[in-house]
From TrEMBL:
Pfam families: N_methyl (PF07963), SBP_bac_10 (PF07596). InterPro entries: DUF1559, N_methyl_site, Pilin-like. Residues 35-201 form the DUF1559 domain. It comes from Bythopirellula polymerisocia. It comes from the Bacteria. Gene3D superfamilies: Glycoprotein, Type 4 Pilin. This is DUF1559 domain-containing protein. SUPFAM superfamilies: Pili subunits.
Length: 278
């Protein structure tokens, strides 16, 4: 009797290599799409952070008839006492559903006083951009947030707008030293004036703690050219900003410094059409 030929089972080496190559190509095509989807989610999260911050600041303004003081008692070297240097963030905590944390702060002492450590070591997720990866030296990212390596004070990725550099008079923004700005003082228009912007990845050396009143800055360079005290983020192509009307907009890093300075001033009499087009 003739024997039937045995059936072949499995792949040949060539077929296996072809399948592996096809899988590799598919993974290569899929990975950028997955990364893009994740970044889109992180961008949405960052926008939502700024919207919440905007609601808190505008609710504060509605009750107090002015925005919070950007930095209460700026610390001056050699001065005794040196100054409490408390931030606008600390003042607005109750409007971010952080009343318990607010009540733990002692506003009669400095931001880094031991009496405030328990509260100021608490990370605030709403002040952390999930896209941040370019961390300044000595800044660590933890599961619950981020802290510096000095006293463990929790840091933030958003800074208040002190104004535009090289524009006279100085302190021409809306979150400044020892003075609360009322909405009526923003004569350029609330939709044409920045209140807060991303300034991500900073550490304690760069005054990146949320309690530190020096967490305000005046803009002098283009976006994403300087990490310390300038608009800076890890979003591709620009950074998110919060305007005084509560709107959140993405600023292209190609935006000219002239337009940026116009956006950072509250009463610079710039042409609204130029400012609002970005």
């Amino acid at each position: 009797m003739r024997r039937l030929p045995s059936q072949r089972v499995g792949f040949t080496l060539v077929e296996l290599l072809v399948v592996i190559a096809i899988i590799g190509v598919l993974i290569g095509l899929l990975l950028p799409a997955v990364q893009a989807a994740r970044e889109a989610s992180r961008r949405s999260h960052c926008q939502n952070n700024l919207r919440q911050i905007g609601v808190a600041l505008l609710n504060y303004e509605q009750q107090h008839e002015a925005l919070p003081v950007g930095c209460l008692e700026k610390r001056i070297s050699g001065k005794n006492p040196p100054g409490r240097q408390l931030s606008w963030i600390a003042s607005s905590l109750p409007y971010l559903e952080q009343s318990t944390l607010f009540e733990q702060l002692n506003f009669a002492v400095a931001y880094d006083d031991p009496q405030n450590l328990n509260a100021t070591q608490t990370a605030l997720p709403v002040y952390l951009c999930p896209s941040t990866f370019r961390l300044a030296p000595n800044r660590s990212r933890m599961l619950a947030g981020a802290s510096d390596s000095s006293q463990g004070l929790a840091v933030c990725d958003y800074g208040g707008i002190y104004g535009a550099a090289f524009v006279s008079p100085s302190a021409n923004g809306v979150l400044i030293y020892d003075h609360a700005i009322a909405i009526q003082e923003i004569t350029d228009g609330t939709s044409s004036t920045l209140m807060v912007a991303e300034d991500t990845g900073r550490n304690w050396i760069m005054d990146g703690e949320w309690i530190n009143g020096e967490n305000i800055f005046d803009q002098s360079n283009s976006i994403n050219t300087q990490q310390d005290n300038e608009i800076w983020s890890d979003h591709l192509g620009g950074a998110f900003s919060l305007r005084c009307d509560g709107s959140v907009r993405f600023l292209d890093e190609k935006t000219s410094t002239e337009v940026l300075r116009a956006l950072c001033t509250r009463n610079g009499t710039e042409i609204p059409a130029i400012v609002s087009s970005n």
